[in-house]
Amino acid sequence: MLIHPWDAGTEEQSLAFVRANQFGQLIAAGRGRDVPVVVPTQFLLADDETVVLHLARPNPVWAAIEENPKVVLSVAGPWSYIPGSWRAEPGTDPELGVPTTYYSAVQLLCRAEILTEAEEKLDVLRGQLADLDPGQGDPSAMPRLLTGIRGLRLAIEEVRGKFKYDGHKDAAHRARVAERLAERRGPGDAAALPYLG
Length: 197
Description:
CATH class: Mainly Beta
Strand order of the largest sheet: 2-1-5-6-7-4-3
Distance between the termini: 25 Å
Radius of gyration: 20 Å
CATH superfamily: Electron Transport, Fmn-binding Protein, Chain A
Oligomer: single chain
Strand content: 25-35%
Number of helices: 7
Order of helices and strands: HEEEEHEHEHHEHH
Helix content: 25-40%
Low-confidence stretches: none
CATH architecture: Roll
Number of domains: 1
CATH topology: Pnp Oxidase, Chain A
Shape: elongated
Mean pLDDT: 95
Number of strands: 7
């Protein structure tokens, strides 16, 4: 992912974004494959260095991880299209403005560890359920569930965050775009507003 200095996220900002958006794409390249295995999945950022999740046993990602434990967890948030006319400098032809898309994206480069023991898988499930569904009962009461899944622990080795919201433009420019986003109220527009202040 191309990250310019003006849209680079700090590690703290990037992990906060991941914590608030715990659904992403797990990408495992494996070895000697034509394409990587890409799995959309819910996950839990257990701490600033660890992600845990579980997937069904037949998932093709397991073979790719066994071939190569280096994986990427990619998380992207809402996006908002910005017409070129909004980005044209005042006093210039609006048709000469360059359109863009605002978005947030974080990639966690990780080393994956497959968890097969019942207690390890229960720990993953308990953590995810405590975060997503605190009223849910103890997953140990569902032994059939445990046999159908494997757990995954991802040790985060690098955090790459990109927050593309015209950070290289001046405050007046960003305020003009923010005003138009607030008027338009399209998908992703409200999510972009805090980044333009």
